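Repro:
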Amino acid sequence: MRVLVLPTKFMCSWRASNFVPKAKKHSEKIGVFFFRGVIVIAHKKRYDERMKIIPKKLMAVFAGCALVMSASAKTSFNENLSADEKARLSRGEVVIVNTGNTKKICLETDNATAKELISVMKSLKPAYFAEVLQVKPYRGNEDLIARIQKELLDVEGYAGIPYYSVRHDKWYNLYDWAKIVSRSTTAKQTQVVADVYMAPFGQFQADISLENRGEEILYLFSNKTKMILEEKITAAGPQKMKSGIAVFRDGDNWILYGAGGVDALSLFFLRDRIETSFINRIKSFTVYFIQKVDSK
């Protein structure tokens, strides 16, 4: 808690006796008020009845500050991000966080689009979970929504997205191929069903949706059919792998928030491999589109 002592002219009308029992007759008369997380104390040696009322100009300043605060953006990154990660976000860098648990989500916001994505992730109750974040200035990126929407809806273009395998120390394609089975589009929403091939899970069918909400978009991807590891083990049942990207304006900035999780096997002898296979692919997908938009 911070304490700020102001000159006499900013004094409030409250007396020390209101706060301190048995105040002496000639004790300092103290005014206290709370403003933006700071306790402000205004005082003088002798009480002056003329200072009972806060000057009208000061009240106007407080009213203006309150208006600015109520209209300001309400998005923050909590203690689940380190100071270094927050500093990197402030520089516009992409930050990847493998928290492993939706209880440790890094984003706190009142934005409905981001909250919807977070709700999808929490409802999944994933065994493996990761987030990707970036903050971009609005100025100079006014067309960001249109650019990222175009890239995300190029489903057949998913083939060839680069993926680095830690296990093999080698670059692969995230998807070897992607083919659209069906597509429906309205003024604000596009829904796609696609067959995709992603090693080591082989071919599976995916549900893809993207909703344009003006200065916000919500992209969701989920497996419609089983995902089978090397044609032997069912690693994830239908609708058990979900990922998404929410893009929304926050004051003078854009927030790009990606999240993905898998409610998959958690066997001790397979856990590390399955986590790496799923989560690294989810992170690669999100980072790819964020960086591709950056390059435009």
